Amino acid sequence: MISPLLPTYARVNMAFERGEGAVAYTSDGEAYLDFGAGIAVNSLGHAHPHLVEALTEQAQKIWHTSNLYQIPAGQQLAERLTGASFADTVFFTNSGAEAMECMIKMARKYHYARGDKDRYRIITFEGAFHGRTLATIAAGGQEKYLEGFGPKVEGFDQVPFADHDAVKAVIGDQTAAILIEPVQGEGGIRPVPAKCLRGLRELADEHGILLLFDEIQCGMGRTGKLFAHEWAGIAPDIMAVAKAIGGGFPLGACLATSEAAQGMTAGTHGSTYGGNPLAMACGNAVLDVMLEDGFLEAVRDKALLLQQKLARLKDEHPKIIEDVRGSGLMIGIKCRIANTELLQACLKQKLLTIAAGDNVVRLLPPLIVNSEQIDDAISRIDKACQSLSSDATENAASG
């Protein structure tokens, strides 16, 4: 007998009723330090006053009109995003997967509009995760997401992670674009070296193809800059963002240069809910905070503190922690034991973390986390590692 709620998630048996900053409270009043942030979504933490005020104020006005009419707050948010990025234009969506779909369509339409109708293939990378739609699971190329859904959507050529020579070898007459996450999230918090990103930009320019960035998880301040690719000193032609941009309200965006977007004329793409007044109020409120003087600098400072303290834990627990990697407040603990064991041990310490590929536990705290909470999280991870080491010693003795 199937449950009323489709059982596609292996949910932990707890529910959260409210939150404040970096702390989430269960329905029975237990407090958890949240270093998952709803998978990098709650960028400003729980119940941020400015976000609550913006959503509440808009909810008392108008929620939805559809894109048949002007939405001034959407125009404002688009102008702010283009002003703070490489882009000239923005399309708003409800999710990251929709932003990815817009980006894929835009890349193909770019070449079509220029008369290159056979250029539609996109080069992607092993370990990538780009969403759960038929096109985005094909782009990600992971068998566990593809299995059972029929023929894989055509048009994606996958190469090893950050392998410049492999990219070069697969570019052909049908290649339209190169698609990459500047920092892989689901794939195990694997930053792409800046040299590689710059090399991909050069390859794209050399062959007249587009460079696409998926910054759904690593964008919007997560690495200490507004967008992760800024660390490499280059820019894409099109970029998808979501998660943190709405601070918890469903919102995504596809940003592009005017050149890359030239094929997207009236009627070529659309969304019923995308960019509605509620979403735009939240997006503007998030930017109000993120673009404040000193905000991103503070993220970088806190990231350095967290990384330094995790490096110490790695030295203290070499049988549990193999490596610590990442960028900004997007950190991966690569485990020597099963990552689920560390995740469960952290949960017992009332610390929320998230599993990722390559046997990694992700730490994605809200960007407003403070140094005391970072110290607290380190203490809880330390205790989790101690408990795992103790269990391993007891098991060895009894065996």
Strand order of the largest sheet: 4-12-11-10-7-5-6
Would you identify the regions where 5 or more consecutive residues have pLDDT less than 50? none
CATH class wording of the largest domain: Alpha Beta
Strands, total number: 17
**Count of individual helical segments:** 12
Under the CATH scheme, the architecture of the largest domain is 3-Layer(aba) Sandwich
Distance linking N and C termini: 41 Å
Structural features, described:
The chain is an alpha/beta fold. The protein has two domains: 16-47 and 294-398, Aspartate Aminotransferase, domain 1, CATH 3.90.1150; 49-290, Aspartate Aminotransferase, domain 2 (3-Layer(aba) Sandwich). The protein is 38% helix and 18% strand. It has helices spanning 37-40, 49-59, 72-83, 96-113, 134-140, 143-146, 164-170, 194-207, 277-290, 295-316, 339-348, 371-398, and strands spanning 16-20, 23-26, 31-34, 89-93, 121-125, 156-159, 175-180, 183-184, 190-191, 210-214, 238-241, 252-256, 321-327, 330-335, 351-352, 354-356, 360-363. The chain has a seven-stranded mixed β-sheet with strand order 4-12-11-10-7-5-6, sandwiched between helices. Strands 1-2-3-15 form a four-stranded mixed β-sheet. A four-stranded antiparallel β-sheet has the order 13-14-17-16, covered by helices on one side. α10 runs parallel beside α12 (371-398). It is globular, with a radius of gyration of 21 Å. 47% of the residues are buried. The mean pLDDT is 96.
